[in-house]
Structures are given as C-alpha cells and as structure tokens.
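REQUEST ID: PR-0412
SUBMITTED BY: lab tech R.K.
PRIORITY: routine
TASK: structure prediction, single protein chain
INPUT:
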Amino acid sequence: MRAPAAPSTPIAGFRRLLAGRTLSVLATCLVPTALTLAVIHATGSATDLGLVLACELIPQLVLLPVGGVLADRLPPQRVAFAADLVRGLIQLIIGVELLLGTVNILHLSVLSAITGAAVAIGTPTVSPLVTAVVPPEARLRANSHLGTARGIALVAGPGIVGVMVITIGVGWSFVLTAALFIVAAATLGGLKVTRHERPAGNSTFMKDLAEGWQVVRSHRWFWTNLIGHGISNLTAGVLMTLGPLIALRELGGDVSWVITYQCGMVGLLLGAYLAPRLPIPRPLVATSLGGAVFALPLLTFAVPAPTAVNAAAYFVAMLGLGVLNTVWQTVMQQRFESHTLARADSYDALLSFAARPLGLALAAPVAATTGNAAVLVFAAVLVGGSSLGLLTLREVRTMGFVTGEVPPQKSAPEAAAEHRK
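STATUS: complete
OUTPUT:
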C-alpha cells in the first residue's frame, strides 16, 4: 500500500490558512535576529541577550501544554488569531520604543516573555486548523505546502531581517514584523472551518490538562517517537554549535558553513515537497529513517570531511527531516481525534523546543573536555540508534495511513489500561 492519493488542495479555506500561517511563520523567523540586534543596539551585552532570549523560551516550555488545552477547548482559529495579534502588538511596542530610544532590557525581557507565551498558545493550533479545513485525503499534500512554506521562511528570514536593518533600521524592522503578524491574524478572521464536537460530559481545564498527558502516555507509538524527535533536536543543536566552529577553524572559514547550511535548507524544502509524492506504505518507518539520516553530517563533521561531503550529508539529513515533519504531522492528524489533537501536538512541540537549546548549551562545554569528534560521534550514534530503534516496535512497522476521518477512540484511561495488559 502506498501513501493515500495526494490530490491538489484548491480549497479556498486552505489557501487562506496557508497564506496566514506562512506570514505568521515568516514573522516568527524574523523575531530572533531582530531581537538580537535590538539588544546589541540597547546595551551590546551578551548577558543581556541571553536574559532576553531566555525570557522568551521559558514561557514557551511552560505553557505549551496549556496552549494545547486551549486549542482543544476553543475554536482553534480564535486561539491562533489571539496569539498572532498579541505577538504583533508586542513587536509594534518594541519597534516604537526602539524608534523613540526608550527601550531597555527590563522592557525587552517582559515583552519577550509575553511573546513566548503567545508562541506557546498559538503553536498547537496548526494541526487542528488543518483538520478543520482540509478533508482527510488531502492532508498530506496540505502539510507538504505548509512545510515548504516554513522551510522558505527559515531560509529567507535572516536575510530579510538583514535587508530591513540596513535599509530602514532595527526599529522599523520590528514595525514591519508586527504588520506581518497582524495580517496573519486577519486571515483567520473569516476562515470557515468544520466544527468538531467535543465529547459530552463535565470537563474542566485541569481535567483536560491531565487528559492530555494521559493521551500521550496511552499511545506507545506516539510517545516513543516523541523521544526520538527530542533526541534528533538535541543532536541538531550539537551540530549547530560545533559545525560552524569546525568550519571556521579547519575547513577554510565561514563560507564552508554557509554552503553546508544552505544545502541543508534546500534539502529541507525538497523533502517537504516530495513527501506526498513518494510511495510511503508505512509512514512511521519513513519518519524513523528520516530521523536516522541526521547521523550523516554529525559523522562527516567529526572527521572533518571536505565541505562538499559535509554539504551533501547535511542535504540528505535535512531532506529526511522535511519528509519526517510532513508525514508525522499527517499521521498525528489521522490518528488523534479532533478534541485531543492540539494537546498531543503540544507535547511534540514541547520536546522540540526544549531539546535543541539543550544541545546548543551542552555541545561546546562537553567538546572542550572530550574534543569535537567524540561529541559528534556520540550524537550520531544517539540519533541513529534511537531512530532505528523505533523500528523494533510492531505498531511502528505496521501502521499505515488512514484514508478517512479519525475513528472514535477509547478514552485515554481506557487506552492506558489496555496498553498495560
């Protein structure tokens, strides 16, 4: 059996959703670089920069499960609208303060914390929006479009910020970023979505929060893959730290890393584009293999290999990641009922958001003791072993795509009890 037919998705609602989410992702990709430049302009202190970035990250990690509950309890387009609107207003405030010369680190820290909270609330809404707008048979293609748009934003974001800073200044770059968020929010205002009914019964916010964790625990294929994805993000952080240092010191300078990185971004785009066009009879086998190939650039940089070899390895790794992301989102949308999907997605995002900064933070100090090669080889074995290890699970090897709506499932406690048997 191959992947379900992937017809084009000329659905007006999806076009609107794609445009809005693309603008939101692009604006999100502009913020870190612009925020870094804002701190540099304000104080030039690395400590201040670390504080501001931490103030944005910590609320994301703490509030992602809360965002999942909100997106499951409320219409997801309203949650996403509010999150984008808040982020737009925050970027506007920062821009105005920069233009007036009144910005300070305390303000930036508080505003960054609010931004992080909005990111946490808005992130789990994407999958529920896809299932509410796109019919089941078209979701793989829809996720491919969204993944390609995200990849383009990741590639173009830093360059766009650089151009804006050079041409109009840091303050105005924040104002334009705010406009992107506000336009993205506006696209959700008239979005027509399919309403998904919640199960009858008395449910409170705290019960829904607890049920979200139970849902994750009750599906072994899901939580084991989440661990694998967390390890993949951890090792990606290791490569993002040590790769540029090795390129600078041993491979001829910055150009070597730029070439390697850009080849990876091309691979990411190509993977997202190809995912619905490949014969994929077992989606979780494909995602496991897509995660395992990230070991390649870790090994080539451990040598270190010539730039051409590193670039080719990183291209293959990111191509695998592009396929993984697209297929994984589709599997989640097919396997979780609409009233639990956002909570499941929030835990997936939580591990990703937490693991990569951990890899970034640990790589250099550990490498200073053991050497770069030892850290990179260990990371390669870790990501390759954990990804391929998923194939030992029967449900990973046998699970296929679902061609219809998600069938009713047991409650989380019932599923957990059945799994324990």
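NOTES: Confidence is low (pLDDT under 50) at residues 4-10, 410-421.
REVIEWED BY: pending
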